[in-house]
Specification:
single chain, disordered N terminus, globular, mainly alpha, two-stranded antiparallel sheet
Length: about 525
Amino acid sequence: MSQANPAAEAPRGWIYRALDLVERVGNKLPDPAILFLLLMVVVWVVSWLLSGVSFAEIDPRTGEGIRVRNMLEGAALTGFMAQVVTTFVNFPPLGVVLVAMLGLGVAEHTGFISASLRAILAVTPKMLLTPALIAVGVLSHVAVDAGYVLVIPLGAVIFYAAGRHPLAGIAAAFAGVSGGFSATMFVPSSLDPLLAGLTQAAARLTDAEIIINPLNNFFFTTASTFLVVLVGWFLTDKVIEPRLRGTKVDGDVSQMPTMDALKPAEIRGLLWAAGSMVLTLALFILSLVPETSPWRFAETGELTNARAPVMQSIVPLIFVFFVIPGIVYGYVAGTAKSHRDIVQGMSRAMSGMGYYIVMAFFCAQFIYAFGQSNLGALLAIKGANWLKMMGFPMSVTLIGIVLLSGFVNLMIGSASAKWALIGAIMVPMLMELGVSPDLTQAAYRVGDSSTNIITPLLPYFPLIVVFCQRYVKASGIGTLLALMLPFSIALLITWTAFLLGFWALDIPLGIGATYSYPAG
């Protein structure tokens, strides 16, 4: 196969020099685990300094004045210590990553993933590899956070196997999975009803009878997929990959895929594995069909409700859909001789997660302390109130919501938590100015997605750093920031313009959505 370390030097234009500076500065920061520890100490100190200050802003979650909690006071500190283990164990990405990696470990160890990718790459035009990967990343939102542990590492594998730089594959996949988090490829995600519910609650502060359709942004977010793919495609091939020409791939070569032709045993294994996947999928779909299916949300019979068992079982289902074909492939192709080989594959996958587990521990503690201190909520509410007070023209106000959402996103990872804070102020305010809640929510979603990929406080950010280190050992926070910063800036600009274009041309945002309030 062609090597991912071309001899040609990386271009040295001012954009590339600026990104190199971001990478150097970012990588001089302490190890991510220690960085989260230091940030937690900063939160403690700042919360102590601001705990006695009275703020006029009202917390929409409580209806009372916002108050910073002193995390160094006795009750808060002992409460924090009492919750350390629980905070770590309940850290959402931890279980998602480890369970999914068990299944992926088996499929990788037996050779099923490598053989599958070689078969796919044999029929996929190289020029369409980047857009296809980004599109799959966007589509992965249907499976909640599965894209982070499935699509992103496979992006690196696919690019490396195709003779391209694996970090470019990670960047492209990350741009689709996280940068395009608010885009939907024709299939609604669980985020749609979640945000619409918060929007309706905020809107009812002004109009007690208003009803917000869960798919009120569906047309806009679906069209946004094509924007995200085009922007990501251009940046990956024309900016990111050329810059990586001088970055040597120095990971463990034995763990990296090759583009060797498939052997008869591998083809036979793939056919049996594909058959097992089809059979498993068919049985699963049959179990979903009955209206009384236990996979459905008991109260409404919905399958897509966030509380439906099927939606809450996405990660275990990923485990099953990789373990079964992985085992079948291993036995048929002769790469697995006994159950011990299967367990070894799982053990090998877990051994590679040691560094991530350490980072996850400190990341979980920091996020807990930051949330308990109310510092993020204070900044979000102050920003929303300032935007309200300025009284900008409508187009400028919409841009302001995008930028505010993007800024707050750097500190608060949860999309719903941010919108609960910002939406409670912005939705009623803009309704009084004649702007519909549907448009305000769309502006929020643009800002929320665009900066996902450059915030180390994203719970999955440390995991992506680990994926980078598999191929380039010196990778750190700065490496990933430099990779993703062009995507973030480009998406902020083009996606905001895209929304304003929808508004100017009066293109429907979604089902039951309007641009003006009251609708007319």
